[in-house]
């Protein structure tokens, strides 16, 4: 199973689909480390930095500042989807993020 990040859901590549509500809820629970029913910016950053760590060789090819650039993108992305600006992402905000950006292979 692979994840695909897309900024445009109109062109879904063959073999990929959007996530189901059940899959989104399961992933939300995994990111909510303290089980508060909210994802803090620290929880958000930690989860995605772990994913980036798996792609360190690819990031190295992008250049010496690529990791810092990705971290800034993650921070900006969190702020974008924290609609109410309370510094936490609730389930509905998370679902909007996933629905707009993430595809999964079938």
Task: Provide structural commentary.
With about 110 residues, this protein is an alpha+beta fold. The chain has helices spanning about 20-30, 40-55, 55-60, 65-80, 90-100, and strands at about 5, 15-20, 40, 90, 100-105. It has a 3-stranded antiparallel β-sheet. It has a two-stranded antiparallel ribbon with strand order 3-4. The longest helix has 16 residues, at about 65-80.
Outline the secondary-structure elements.
Elements: E1 3-5, E2 16-18, H1 21-31, E3 39-40, H2 41-53, H3 56-62, H4 66-81, E4 88-89, H5 91-101, E5 102-105
Antiparallel strand pairs: 1-5, 2-5, 3-4
Helix pairs in contact: 1-5, 2-4
Helix content: 40-55%
Give me the count of strands: 5
Number of helical elements: 5
- The run of helices and strands is EEHEHHHEHE
Mean pLDDT: 86
The assigned structural class equals: alpha+beta
What is the radius of gyration computed over CA atoms, rounded to a whole number of angstroms?
14 Å
In whole angstroms, how far apart are the ends?
A: 7 Å
Low-confidence stretches: none
Biggest sheet, in brief? 3 strands, antiparallel
Coarse morphology: globular
Strand content: 5-15%
Largest sheet strand order: 1-5-2
């Amino acid at each position: 199973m692979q994840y695909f990040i897309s900024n445009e859901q109109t062109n879904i590549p063959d073999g990929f689909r959007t996530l189901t509500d059940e899959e989104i809820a399961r992933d939300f629970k995994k990111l909510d480390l303290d089980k508060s029913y909210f994802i803090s910016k620290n929880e958000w950053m930690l989860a995605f930095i772990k994913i980036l760590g798996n792609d360190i060789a690819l990031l190295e090819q992008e250049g010496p500042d690529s990791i810092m650039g990705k971290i800034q993108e993650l921070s900006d992305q969190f702020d974008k989807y924290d609609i109410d600006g309370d510094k936490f992402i609730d389930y509905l905000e998370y679902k909007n993020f996933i629905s707009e950006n993430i595809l999964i292979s079938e």
